[in-house]
DNA sequence: TTATGTTCTTAACCCTGCCTTAACCCCCGC
DNA sequence: GCGGGGGTTAAGGCAGGGTTAAGAACATAA
């Protein structure tokens, strides 16, 4: 869910935008002039500010400049009918992050707001299996939110296994994933596999690693003890 | 100085852009097809990727999707002649941060690249993290209003870390921030890092610096006591 | 000019954690 | 009993990061 501040004096347009944002699960405050905008910005923290340039009491460029001088670096999208190059450059110059010319499609505004908002909430690619979660960047593994300490190589192995989602992965593939071309020529894989298993049980992961003799390893949630 | 990857198969246009970027003090690599782009992206770290959609071998949307799956969240600007709404939405959907329709003014491209790189935070005069505050002009660092004595280099390092807001900053980026092109060839960074840490704890800052082995340093407020 | 202090660089050293290696163990089929 | 596929454990080496101290470079003030 994103928190947005909309600064727009055209109440009709503002209403449209507010309705549209609501459908997209965004929480939105609305200011109809520049002074009000600075008050909102000082009182709250937003993910994005959508800022019209032609405003009563204090124009959008000044608002943007003002909040930047305050030390606030919330992403700002300028919204205006002026499409001349120098207008746009002026906007970026005052510290805007994007500049959208009216008229625009609502879907595009939403897409741009999303792009600016998501950049800071570092939502990156995640892999899942059972109750474990791998984050690619930064390289972190978690089980139910609690981080597991993994070395680079064991992390690589686990990533490979999780990608296979329970299908068995041949030894060569694991070796390739962990070392690339030049693999060590001893039982290093066995050792790292052992470390990985220990780490998983220690972290109380509901997944564990089994081996299909002669064919490789796979993840499972079955308990299979007995 | 910003590092940019330009992916564009029209060599004439690419040349123009490269010339223009050079004037703006940007260091630019150029890939003429999608596969080459992914190789560049894996081998280097960029501040922004400028990505044409119509490319030989692998189209821009796929390139963008691919680098996002790699866990790389470098800002991407899509560059294309297609101006239909659904084209734009497709771009944002694949993880693009901006979408610019050809033909465009060079100055606008540069402005947008700057906005995505680090222009936003360089427009700001105050940076904050936990209870510490950096003022850019004049160069002052404070914790809860009390100034911390920092040398120019340690100040630069801290600024870089605070800008990242807890995300990890690779060593090269810190070196670049502190020294620019000609870095000293010893363990100077380690030493300055040490001074910085000492200064922070001495000033009772609630933030401290941790290292992610092999990947760089980051700020945190965690107490990490056992 | 000398004296003083700050900052930056270099080098040596320590410490920790990771990776590899090499044993050894267990189980099973022959 | 023996051999092979796995599993387990411990020892050693190496690299990355952290620490400390000494000297060079630089600026400022007397």
Automatic annotation (TrEMBL), chains A, B:
<dbReference type="GO" id="GO:0032993">
    <property type="term" value="C:protein-DNA complex"/>
</dbReference>
<keyword id="KW-0597">Phosphoprotein</keyword>
<keyword id="KW-0902">Two-component regulatory system</keyword>
<dbReference type="GO" id="GO:0000976">
    <property type="term" value="F:transcription cis-regulatory region binding"/>
</dbReference>
<keyword id="KW-0804">Transcription</keyword>
<feature type="DNA-binding region" description="OmpR/PhoB-type">
    <location>
        <begin position="124"/>
        <end position="221"/>
    </location>
</feature>
<dbReference type="InterPro" id="IPR016032">
    <property type="entry name" value="Sig_transdc_resp-reg_C-effctor"/>
</dbReference>
<dbReference type="InterPro" id="IPR039420">
    <property type="entry name" value="WalR-like"/>
</dbReference>
<feature type="domain" description="OmpR/PhoB-type">
    <location>
        <begin position="124"/>
        <end position="221"/>
    </location>
</feature>
<dbReference type="GO" id="GO:0005829">
    <property type="term" value="C:cytosol"/>
</dbReference>
<protein>
    <submittedName>
        <fullName>Response regulator</fullName>
    </submittedName>
</protein>
<dbReference type="InterPro" id="IPR036388">
    <property type="entry name" value="WH-like_DNA-bd_sf"/>
</dbReference>
<dbReference type="InterPro" id="IPR011006">
    <property type="entry name" value="CheY-like_superfamily"/>
</dbReference>
<dbReference type="Pfam" id="PF00486">
    <property type="entry name" value="Trans_reg_C"/>
</dbReference>
<dbReference type="InterPro" id="IPR001867">
    <property type="entry name" value="OmpR/PhoB-type_DNA-bd"/>
</dbReference>
<dbReference type="GO" id="GO:0000156">
    <property type="term" value="F:phosphorelay response regulator activity"/>
</dbReference>
<keyword id="KW-0805">Transcription regulation</keyword>
<feature type="domain" description="Response regulatory">
    <location>
        <begin position="3"/>
        <end position="117"/>
    </location>
</feature>
<keyword id="KW-0238">DNA-binding</keyword>
<feature type="modified residue" description="4-aspartylphosphate">
    <location>
        <position position="52"/>
    </location>
</feature>
<dbReference type="Pfam" id="PF00072">
    <property type="entry name" value="Response_reg"/>
</dbReference>
<dbReference type="InterPro" id="IPR001789">
    <property type="entry name" value="Sig_transdc_resp-reg_receiver"/>
</dbReference>
<dbReference type="GO" id="GO:0006355">
    <property type="term" value="P:regulation of DNA-templated transcription"/>
</dbReference>
